[in-house]
Every structure is written in structure tokens, then in C-alpha cells.
Specification:
Layout lengths: L3 E2 L2 E4 L2 E4 L2 E5 L3 E7 L7 H16 L4 E9 L11 H4 E5 L1 H23 L21 H4 L15 H9 L16 H11 L3 E3 L1 H9 L5 E9 L15 E10 L7 E6 L8 H11 L19 E3 L2 H14 L4 H10 E3 L2 H4 L3 E3 L8 H9 L11 H13 L8 H33 L1
Parallel strand pairs: 5-6, 9-12, 12-13
Antiparallel strand pairs: 1-4, 2-3, 4-5, 6-7, 8-14, 9-10, 10-11
Amino acid sequence: RHPLFEPAFTYKNAFARADILEPSGTDSWNIIEVKSSSSIKDINKDDISFQKYCYEGAGLKIDKCYLMYLNRDFIKDGPIDPHQFFTKEDVTIETETKQENVEEKINKMLEAISSATCPETSIGKNCYNPYDCPLKQICWSCLPKNNVFELYRGKDLACYFYQNGIIEISQINETSALNDIQLRQYRAVKGNGKSTDKDRIRQFLKKLQYPLYFLDFETFTTAIPLFDGLKPYQNIPFQFSCHIMQTPDAKPGNLYFLAEDDAADPRTGFLESLKKALGYDVNYDDNRSISPTTGSILVYYESFEKNILKELAKLFPEHNWWVEDVIERIVDLYEPFGKFYYYSSEQKGSASLKKVLPALTGINYDEMEIGNGQMASIRYLNITFLKGEKEPDKAHIEKIRKDLLDYCGLDTEGMIFILRELYKIAE
């Protein structure tokens, strides 16, 4: 007997297609469900429990149930060994404990499907747990501006309020349930829609040293590492934008890097270009005791850029000396918004660049061909690694590359606009 891949079986009103059926002994089979993630969730065990119910009902004898997922500690070094790349976990016992509820759940689903009327379901955790519901945008469209689901990191609290008839933040009477940041939101909504801590903003601005470098990275990830030294889903930087302001009133200049579309490892080119953009390509004392450049390097949400730089320094130790200096100079423009020194209800409870920029300046990404980092990653992967019959033509590649430069450039230029507004608020 041989393994079967995606074999389909039906039983009663159930249909299942497991990833792999593996022979076990002379008359039994093992179910192997393969996941592209580096960890497993309870819902994955529910899935394999349903498969076991269907297969056994159809007459198969199931011995073991396994979930196979990516080994997060795997590091590519030459050809990939699947036995090291995957982790195979026995979930037979957990699957058995879920068996008794499978048929009951199936009957409930069939009842809902066959009903002539749409079942009444309230907005709540079911809208986003375990996955975002595809109808969420429709169901939530009735929610008013400044609704409780805009509370910063307060989904569970929002569900509690909503179920008790409190829909808008301004209606909250149990303010003791709010943390300090959520309380700022509440006061902003009850006031003029804004909350400002000028003293904290001034303290933040005092940390900045000119010239200022506004820096943003774009990365892509793949489940299967493309280059040696990588783990599954490790970020690979392929682009950066760097706007530079010598003085507060100076016109900013822009330096950038975008890897070629030749499927080569972009990291060495990325590092060399960044080194030059930040002024570290000058010759100076071999003991490297003095930094060749000065000035604050502003990023938005520093953990992302810092982690990328640390990983690069580890993989390419010849760059460690200047990368460490860059990390020390980084200032996080996210701080005034993540800590709510400034908040506008137009941000809808978010401190992301995509929400802060339009709230402060009226500038947004709506007209951009590429409007977020995920889209940038996908577009770059498509023009770089999509080969064969669907390989993009030269004109399409050039269009995407221009869109990528425009998008990443707006990220760093947007930080300049935000900083100027902070100076106005501080004054």
C-alpha cells in the first residue's frame, strides 16, 4: 500500500479530504493534516476530528491522527530535508475526546443551512475568533462612529459593553473598567475628539538630533526559506526608503533601495545601500570607536526595523559594527501615538501609521496602487519569483517597481508630515 494524498470520502452528510492518508499496519491508516503555520490551534484538532468521523463512517480503520506543521527552529543550509523541516505531532487522544460532539455540530450546521431564514447572530467574539468572519464588514457597517469596538486593544471589553446595550464609547458609564489609554479615548470622544499631552510630546521632540533620517523597510516572507540561513517565515528586506532632513526647515532629500527582480538574495545589496544612505561608507579609524555619522534615525514601530537589523548583523557579521550604531540611534515615532500623547477619534483606536497620517494631516493611501506592506510584499514576490507561463512582462514589472517606490516613499515622507504636526501641537 502507498500513501494517499487528499483522498475524498463521504459519510451521511459529511465530506472530508485529508491531506495525507498513511498506511498503518495491514488494515489501518493514519491521518496526517499538514499546516503551513509554525504552530497549531485547537481548531486544527476540530478539523482532523471531523475527518476521522467521516473516514471511519465510510469504513476505514483509523489508527493515529497527526498534525504536521513547520519547524520554527529549522534553518536552511543547502537542500531542504522534509524530515527536519516539518514537525509531526500525535493528536490522536485529543481527536478522540472531540468525536462525541462531531455529529451534533454537523446537525446544527445542516439545520442552519436548510433554514428559510437567516439565523440571528449578535456581533461578538464569533466575528473574529477563531478567524475573521467574511461577513464582518457587512454586519459591522451598522456600527456608529466611535463605537466600543474602537477601544484600543479592548475587543473582549467591547463585546461585554455591546452585549449590555452600550454601543458608543461616549455611553460607557463603567469607566473604572477602562485602562489609562482607553480612558484617554473616552475623554477625547466626550470632548472635542482629541486628546493631547503637550508636555510628553515636547519631551519626545527633545530627544531628536539633526540631521534626521526617516527610515522604513519593506520585507517579504515565505513558508519555505529561499536562501541559506533563513527560518520559515523569516522577514527578508528587499526595499527601504530614507528621507533625510539636515535642519528643521530644510527640504528633505530621499535615498532608496529596491532589489532587482532577478530572484537573487537581496540582503547583501540592501545592507550595502543602507550603509551608504546612512553615511557609514566613509573611511575612519579601524578601532571604530567613533561613529562616522550623527543624527536621529526615525522609524515607525521600532521593533520591526530593529529586529531586521539584528538578524542581518548576525548573518553578515562584517556589517555588525555599523548596524549596532544604527540601532542605538533609532527613535520610534510611534511612541507619541502608541502611548497616546496624542489621539484623535479619527484614528478609530489605532496608532498605526496608516491611521495616524490621515488623522493628523488628511493624507492617506487610498489612491495608491500599493496601499499596505502586505500588498507590497506580494507584488514584489510576483514580479521576482513568478516564473513560467505567468511570468510578468517588462512593462508590468516596471509599473510594479514604480508603485513600490511610491508606497515606501510615502511611508517615510508621511513621517515627516507627522513630525511637523507634532511640532505645531507642541508650540
